[in-house]
Amino acid sequence: MDDPEIWRWIWMAVAATFFVGEMMTAGSFFLLPFAIGAVVATILAFLDVSITGQWIAFVTVSLASFLAMRPLARRLNQQGQVDGIGARRLVGASGTVLEQIGGEGKLGMARIDREEWRAQSATGESLSPGTLIHVVEVEGTRVIVSTAPPPPKPEN
């Protein structure tokens, strides 16, 4: 295992594994620093640096990259869900009931802006066609609606 030729390919496989692992896992840059360290070790292996030097570089670069990416990862994790993007843009929008929305989770149809959505009552009350509604929440492909006016959106 002291053959430098073998370590070139080991480091390359380790780097690829960490890169793929980073792309496949939900999270914020946990495996990427180790992939960067493995890439540096791969380059050093191709430059015929000793195996000890490769390991020192791998650990040092991985640790430095990890510490450098933590503030970014923390900031990305704090943002949470962004309102106003995709279907979430409908929260707070007004609309009209098109088809009866039954009580206790029975779906009906509502028009919000120019789109028709499957709708469910937030309070469980039955809503008849023509009733003015407001979107309280979006769950998958349906909107949860209420007849009460929407709460004011907080200013950013």
Topology as a string of helices (H) and strands (E): HHHEEEEE
Radius of gyration: 27 Å
Distance between the termini: 58 Å
Mean pLDDT: 85
Task: Please describe what this structure looks like.
With 156 residues, the protein is α+β, with helices and mostly antiparallel strands. The protein folds into two domains: 4-79, no CATH class; 86-146, Nucleic acid-binding proteins (OB fold (Dihydrolipoamide Acetyltransferase, E2P), Beta Barrel), CATH 2.40.50. The chain contains three helices and five strands. The chain has helices at residues 4-24, 32-46, 51-79, and strands spanning 94-99, 108-112, 115-121, 132-139, 142-146. The chain has a five-stranded mixed beta barrel. Strand 2 and strand 3 (115-121) form a beta hairpin. Helix 1 (4-24) packs antiparallel against helix 2 (32-46) and helix 2 runs antiparallel to helix 3 (51-79). It is rod-shaped. The N and C termini lie far apart (58 Å). The relative contact order is 0.11. The mean pLDDT is 85.
Structure summary:
The protein is of the alpha+beta class. It is 42% helix and 20% strand.
Task: Reconstruct the topology from this structure.
Layout: H1 4-24, H2 32-46, H3 51-79, E1 94-99, E2 108-112, E3 115-121, E4 132-139, E5 142-146
Parallel strand pairs: 3-5
Antiparallel strand pairs: 1-2, 1-4, 2-3, 4-5
Which features characterize this protein?
3 helices; alpha+beta; OB fold (Dihydrolipoamide Acetyltransferase, E2P); 5-stranded mixed β-barrel; 156 residues
